[in-house]
Structure formats: structure tokens, C-alpha cells
Specification:
CATH architecture of one domain: Beta Barrel
Structural class: alpha+beta
Order of helices and strands: HEEEEEHEEEEEHEEEEEEEEEEEEHH
CATH superfamily of one domain: Nucleic acid-binding proteins
Distance between the termini: 244 Å
Strand content: 25-35%
Helix content: 10-25%
Strand order of the largest sheet: 1-2-3-5-4
Number of helices: 5
């Protein structure tokens, strides 16, 4: 009986718990359904708000936007610009290189600034340009550096007539030849491919074109280098230099950031017509500092170093021996013959031939190669005497007598001066030039004597008759 009662109680308890659990499950299901409905409603509202925001967002050509790359192909870049349509950048608006593979230049999720070209390209995309966005930014930057007078880096692209084509901050520019350096540059192609600091002196915003100059910056750099060099270099130093420019009167040589001038007479020990005969632009040479002017900063240079002096090896020449030389100059009394550059001897007219020579040109000509004998050598005064006469026939020569400066060879001898007859000369007592005397002959005044004159007067005045 007890067991039956216990079973009956358990059954009653189970029967009473069943409806309660079912009620809880139903309540939980209702709550879940309500949450899901709320989430869906929020998503729908957020989508509606987003679409509303996108529909309210307006863009226009020329506007610069921030975007994020969502896809890259070799020819196009797709960008999310937070607009109802995505943007597309074709290759020609991304890079100057029309053969470039864009997948090698940019990747997905990269941030990028773009400029709107067209709101719709006809296929539902916004046409964008990376190059134009960079140009717009460059315009602002160039205008800023012009106001601040700040130097900018320019890439030299090409040498053209009148100057250089450059790229400055992504925009095209031009550098006139006169503003490329503080000094004249004959060949501007030496700058092509280099990046140089320049100043923007003019800018056309409409054409997006700049004019740049390097002259003032170059002058400042040279002044600083010159000041440093003047404290470092000393008169008499032998230094290495690079020939920068050749002129008719000499050569300009860079000796470590500062230029000096080597006059044409200091370029060689021998005779030269132009500096190009011995050196060329761009050549590296060893020069001697002859003088430094601390006030003007001018430096005088010379290629005639003591080591290159031909007189250092004069011992290889022997008096009495014959050598080959070149006639460099002819004067009235002889000729100068070059044995080697910087070493000349004097060939007197009397040593040109065994016989007498009227003119030097009758025997030798300028530029002619001749064989001469070394007849004399004075190392102290650095003089060399030469001869073309046979050995043993040397004679002491004297300079040809100097012709009188008033005399010429083709002038006829002057005839003796003829004595002039005296003309009539008036006098107080009356003139007499010629008259017939009472003696019955005609005489000249020059042949009269005082007695003749007074005797004649006495006869005319008849002093004897009055007595």
C-alpha cells in the first residue's frame, strides 16, 4: 500500500511539473523572436540611413577625394570613395608610363588621393585620376615655396634649345640656359638625369608650368666653397684640378670647389695658338698656384710646374751635336728654332749659310723643320745658340750695321745744295739788285766791294766839279 501511495505521489508531481516547463520554453522562444526582429529592423534602418547619406552625397569634377583601393588589374585601379558608385582609375590617369603594369605599382587596401574627372564614365563608375590629384597638390606646394622662397628638387629631363626641361614637384618646368649655373655652360646635357636644387621664380597656374633657376644657389655655393678654399690653399701649392672652360686667353680650372684662371702663356712651356692645343674641357690636370688675391678671391694658376720645366733635362743636349728643330718665329736678324716644347734656340742670320744671306726667309721658313748644330749653351741665362754652318766654319758675327733711319736703299743720292742768288732786298737808301756800272760791265751785288760802291757814288755826285 505504501509503495502504491508513493508511486501515486510521484505521478502527481510529474504531472504538475510538465505544464510549467512548457510555459518557460514558449516564453524563451518568444523573446528570441523579438530580438531577431529588432536586429533586422536595425539593419534595415541602417541600410536606409546609409542609402540616404549616399544619395545626399554629391561630387563634382576637379574635386579631390580620399579613397581606398579595392581591386587592381594591369590596366585599371578600382577605388572605394564612399559614394554610391565605385571609382576607376585608368592607366593613363595613374602613371606617365603607358606600358606600366599597375599591379606592380599599387595593391589592395592602399590609401590613395584621387581627383574626379567624370561623375559617370557611362558604365556606372566614377572616372578618377591619380595624376591630376598629385598635380593639384603640386600647384599648392609650388605656390607655397614661391612665397617662402624655399629651394625645391628638380629632375632634369632633357636639354633643349635655350635651356633645360625639368620636372618640379610633379609638374613640368623650364630652366633657361642663363639660369642653369653661375657661369656659362656650353653643353647643358651634363645635367640631364640629375636632381638639382632650384628656386621657382615664375609659375603659371592655368598652364601649370613653372620657371626655375639654379643661378643664385650656385653662386652661394661657390662663394662658400671659395671662402673655404682660400683658407686652405697656399701660393706655390701644386694641386689637381679639372678644366671647366676654355677661352681664347686661357683656361678656367676647378681646384676643389673654386675656379682659377691659367693664362694661355702659363699653359705650356712651348708656343701655342689656343688653349685647346694642349688641354680640353673636363680634363684633369696638375697645376701650380701662382697667386691668390684674398680681396677679390681670384686665383692665378699655371700648368708650367717646376717638374715639367724642359731646362731640368738640358744636360741631354751637347754643344757641337746636331738636332732637329722647328722654326717657330723669324725676325730680321735671325730665327728661333724649337728643339722641344719650351726649349728654343737662336739661329743668327750669319749662321744660316756659308755665304752671305740678305733675308732670313731666303733660307728658312716659319714652321719648317731644320737640322741645326748646338753652337752655344748658357745654362744660367737659359740661352741656346744654333748654327746651320758646317763645323769648323763658325765665325764671330757682328750685327748688321743699322741703316740710318732717314735713309732708304732705293733713294737716290742727294745732290749738293745749290747756292741761291740773293733776291732784291729793299733798303733805306734804295734797292739795288743788278745795275750797270760806269766801268761798262754788269756785275752782281755779291761781287761788289765797298770801294766800288763809294767810287761809283762819288762819280755820280761830281764832287771834283764842285771844287
Amino acid at each position: 500500500m505504501e509503495k502504491e501511495n508513493m508511486n501515486t505521489q510521484e505521478e502527481e508531481m510529474m504531472t504538475s511539473e510538465g505544464p510549467a516547463e512548457e510555459t518557460k520554453v514558449e516564453e524563451t522562444a518568444k523573446e528570441a523572436t523579438a530580438v531577431e526582429a529588432a536586429e533586422v529592423e536595425e539593419e534595415e534602418m541602417s541600410m536606409e540611413q546609409g542609402m540616404a547619406e549616399l544619395s545626399n552625397m554629391s561630387i563634382k569634377p576637379g574635386q579631390v577625394l580620399d579613397g581606398k583601393v579595392i581591386k587592381v588589374t594591369p590596366e585599371n585601379v578600382f577605388v572605394n570613395i564612399n559614394y554610391m558608385s565605385d571609382g576607376i582609375i585608368p592607366r593613363n590617369e595613374f602613371s606617365d608610363d603607358q606600358t606600366a603594369d599597375l599591379t606592380t605599382l599599387i595593391k589592395e587596401d592602399d590609401e590613395i588621393k584621387v581627383s574626379v574627372v567624370k561623375v559617370s564614365d557611362g558604365e556606372g563608375n566614377v572616372l578618377l585620376s591619380k595624376r591630376r590629384a598629385e598635380q593639384d597638390a603640386a600647384v599648392q606646394n609650388i605656390e607655397r615655396v614661391m612665397v617662402e622662397n624655399t629651394p625645391v628638387l628638380c629632375r632634369i629631363k632633357e636639354a633643349v634649345k635655350g635651356g633645360l626641361r625639368v620636372e618640379v614637384m610633379g609638374l613640368p618646368g623650364f630652366m633657361p640656359a642663363s639660369l642653369a649655373s653661375a657661369s656659362f655652360i656650353r653643353d647643358l646635357s651634363i645635367f640631364v638625369g640629375k636632381e638639382l636644387e632650384c628656386q621657382v621664380i615664375e609659375f603659371d597656374r592655368h598652364k601649370k608650368r613653372a620657371v626655375v633657376s639654379r643661378k643664385e644657389l650656385d653662386q652661394a655655393e661657390r662663394a662658400e666653397k671659395r671662402a673655404q678654399a682660400l683658407t686652405r690653399l697656399q701660393k706655390g701649392d701644386a694641386v689637381e684640378g679639372t678644366v671647366t672652360k676654355l677661352m681664347n686667353y686661357g683656361a678656367f680650372i676647378d681646384i676643389g670647389g673654386v675656379e682659377g684662371l691659367a693664362h694661355i702663356s702659363d699653359l705650356s712651356w712651348g708656343r701655342i695658338k689656343t688653349p685647346a692645343d694642349v688641354i680640353s674641357e673636363g680634363e684633369t690636370v696638375r697645376v701650380l698656384i701662382q697667386d691668390i688675391n684674398q680681396n677679390t678671391g681670384k686665383i692665378s694658376l699655371s700648368l708650367k710646374t717646376p717638374e715639367s720645366d724642359p731646362w731640368r733635362n738640358i744636360d741631354k743636349y751637347t754643344v757641337g751635336e746636331s738636332y732637329t728643330g722647328k722654326v717657330m718665329n723669324i725676325i730680321k736678324s735671325g730665327a728661333f728654332v724649337e728643339l722641344e716644347p719650351g726649349l728654343e734656340g737662336y739661329l743668327h742670320i750669319s749662321q744660316l749659310s756659308e755665304g752671305n744671306v740678305e733675308k732670313v726667309e731666303d733660307v728658312v721658313q716659319k714652321g719648317q723643320e731644320v737640322t741645326v748644330r748646338l753652337s752655344g749653351l748658357d745654362k744660367e741665362s737659359k740661352r741656346i745658340s744654333l748654327s746651320m754652318r758646317e763645323p769648323g766654319s763658325d765665325r764671330d758675327f757682328q750685327r748688321a750695321p743699322r741703316r740710318d733711319r732717314f735713309e732708304s736703299s732705293d733713294r737716290r743720292e742727294r745732290e749738293p745744295r745749290q747756292r741761291r742768288e740773293r733776291g732784291s732786298r729793299p733798303s733805306r737808301g734804295g734797292g739795288y739788285e743788278r745795275r750797270t756800272l760806269d766801268r761798262g760791265y754788269t756785275d752782281k751785288v755779291d761781287n761788289l766791294t765797298i770801294g766800288d760802291v763809294f767810287g761809283d757814288l762819288k762819280a755820280k755826285m761830281n764832287f771834283d766839279d764842285e771844287d
